[in-house]
Structures are given as C-alpha cells and as structure tokens.
Design a protein that fits this description.
Blueprint (H helix, E strand, L loop, with lengths): L2 H4 E2 L2 H10 L4 E6 L6 H11 L4 E7 L1 H6 L11 H9 L6 E5 L5 H7 L3 E5 L10 H6 L3 E5 L7 H9 L1 E3 L5 E3 L8
Parallel strand pairs: 1-4, 2-3, 2-5, 3-4, 5-6
Antiparallel strand pairs: 7-8
C-alpha cells in the first residue's frame, strides 16, 4: 500500500478503513517526534500482536500540551505521520488534537492497546475501556534505551550532569 494511503485525516476515512481492516487490530499512540530505533522496535513488536497496526500521533499542539522540553515537536505532524506510514508494519496512521487519544480509542475499538514499557498496562489511557469489551492492554518492554529527549540533548550539545541538569558541552576547536 502507498504510504499516503495509510494516513487518515477525516472520520469518514477512519470509518471506511476500519470496516476493511483485518482483525485483530492493534492501537498505539505517541509523539514520535524524531523516529529512532526504540520506536521502530516497539512498533514492530506491537504489530506482531495483530493483523492491523493503527498508530495515533499527537498533533503539534498536543505535543506542546504534554510539556515536552525544547520547542517540541521538532518535526511537524504531517512529517511524523509520513515517516510512520513508511514503515512496512504500520497499516494506518492518524493524528489527534486532544491531550489523550481516548476518543480515538472509542472509535477504533482495538483488540490490543499497546504502549512502551515505561507505561504499566493498567495505567495506559483507554486500558479499562478496551478490557471492558474483551480487548487487552499491553506494555511492551523497552528493548533499546533510546529517547527523543536524549537525542536532542546530544544534537544541541547539552547532556545532563549527575544531578540531572543540562550543561553545555563546549565544541572542540583544536582541530584544523
């Protein structure tokens, strides 16, 4: 399937594609600001739980609402969705404006609701709803310790000291 065909932008598209989507359907969500190995491993493992992987992506405004540091998101929503849709194991991608994807979860009615291992399964937004109608919530263990925040610190030349505060790393200008 073409990458752009995987990206949904209207409720009409959502409902049409959901009717045709093979089950079981797996739902996950996140910012996915700078796609990295940790994201890819987690998404691939999530996809293995079903036949359709639906990825909900925080809008630019909702990323800001979450309090991500450093002028986030770096990449706009359309770019983040395009990168996710380009992954072969991702079937459907849709942005959401709210602070949480609970309304989208209600519409999609996934068989499996998935987040990364930093989320206990019982604390995943929508877990109780999905379990109420017979679905399951999963917390996928983190296989590769990566984070967008840490990558941005490296790119910007700042790294946390032992107390957790960021410090500037001076560039090495000794080379010709």
């Amino acid at each position: 399937m073409n990458t752009t065909d995987k990206i949904l932008s209207t409720d009409e598209q959502l409902h049409r594609r959901l009717r045709a989507a093979p089950r079981p359907l797996v739902f996950t969500n996140g910012c996915f600001d700078i796609l990295h190995r940790g994201h890819v491993a987690y998404l691939e493992e999530a996809a293995a739980l079903g036949r359709t992987l639906f990825v909900a992506v925080n809008s630019d405004a909702s990323v800001t609402q979450l309090g991500k540091e450093g002028n986030r998101p770096i990449n706009p929503l359309d770019d983040r969705m395009a990168l996710l849709a380009a992954l072969g194991f991702v079937d459907l991608v849709m942005g959401f404006e709210e602070a949480t994807p609970i309304e989208l979860i209600r519409q999609v009615r996934p068989d499996h609701l998935v987040k990364g291992g930093d989320w206990p399964a019982d604390q995943i937004v929508g877990a109780q709803l999905v379990e109420k109608y017979g679905g399951q919530a999963h917390s996928i263990p983190i296989r590769h310790e990566r984070s967008t925040s840490a990558l941005l610190q490296r790119i910007r030349g700042t790294e946390p000291d032992h107390g957790g505060d960021a410090q500037t790393v001076e560039p090495d200008n000794s080379l010709p």
